[in-house]
Amino acid sequence: MSAPHTPRPPRKHTALPKARILIEALPWLTRHHGRTVVIKFGGNAMVDDALKAAFAQDVVFLRHAGLHPVVVHGGGPQISAQLDRLGLDSEFRAGLRVTTPEAMDVVRMVLAGQVQRELVGLLNRHGPLAVGMTGEDAHLMSAVKRYADVDGERVDLGRVGEVTATDTGAIEALLRDGRIPVVSSVARGADDDHVYNVNADTAAAALAAALRAETLMVLTDVEGLYADWPASDEVISRLTESELEKLLPDLASGMVPKMEGCLHAVRNGVRTARVIDGRVPHAILLEIFTDEGIGTMVVPDGAGEGEPT
Ligand SMILES: Nc1ncnc2c1ncn2[C@@H]1O[C@H](COP(=O)(O)OP(=O)(O)O)[C@@H](O)[C@H]1O
Ligand SMILES: CC(=O)N[C@@H](CCC(=O)OP(=O)(O)O)C(=O)O
Q1: Ligand nearest to the CA of 276
Q2: 32, 239, 294, 304: which has the fewest C-beta neighbours closer than 10 Å?
Q3: Mind listing the pLDDT tens digit for each residue in 28-80?
Q4: Residues comprising the binding site?
Q5: At which positions is substrate bound (predicted)?
Q6: Is 238 inside a domain boundary?
Q7: Is 183 domain-assigned?
Q8: How many angstroms is it from 261 CA to the middle of ligand 2?
Q9: What is the spatial distance between Cα 277 and Cα 4, in angstroms, rounded to a whole number?
């Protein structure tokens, strides 16, 4: 007779901590499944190849986790570099680039022909996912000429546009087909044949609102909204639309279109708008799938403090 068989204790699997990490993401996976997330990738967060590759991995991860990511990209530094190479002036007024018709050709070429192509290429390393477009395609974004207000004076910015209408049909069709739209912030003229240069934060906010996105996520090159910039680097982690409205007049330069965009988004049906640090590798995954939200989150008035995000 052979000795009774004593069952062995289960093997210690070294990969168990990985399972724990995956399970920790379950509440967020459940919450965000099937939701649209508009991600704005700024030109300043786009300078490092490793960060760009990590950004693409995060966006593809979201897509495979059942979310519907839409990428809107900027490219301010890349446009400035090309204008410089061509010996064309590049001046900003109230945070917006004064855009002559010649400069507009360069803006369109750099955004749609260079920056967008690069992002589409990085995303498509992971499969046939990304499709690039500009606001001109299928009337995605229509704009009229926008003026700036500098010390109470109306300033002509040339071909700078303000989005007046959106048609998200093409984006929705792409999302239904499992694709990742990558949008350059160039718009068609609503009542002329020009094309317009739209600030990419503004374009992302307009699209997030039009798509009734769950979240607008703006990646940039700072940790978030600093309470007293540049004197202090204390980041405001959460604020309501009313609190943000009070702060807006005191904000400077690049933060203005971002925070105006966040306000527009949450006032128009987007549940949360966030400004996060694109210099942190995998910032998007950290923000969406963990409790340790990084950066600044704007919520509509009346959103409960302890509500899941
Ligand atoms: N209150 C503030 N908090 C954080 N950054 C601010 C603030 N006010 C102005 N900024 C500036 O805004 C910049 C981000 O805007 P921008 O340069 O347009 O970035 P992007 O290319 O990502 O759109 C920061 O690098 C910082 O210099
Ligand atoms: C009108 C206006 O200023 N348009 C921007 C469009 C690109 C952009 O917004 O890029 P970032 O997100 O990298 O700043 C520009 O010409 O620079």
Answers
A1: 1
A2: 304
A3: 999 999 999 999 998 777 888 999 999 999 999 999 999 999 999 999 999 99
A4: 75-76, 97, 197
A5: 75-76, 97, 197
A6: yes
A7: yes
A8: 13
A9: 61
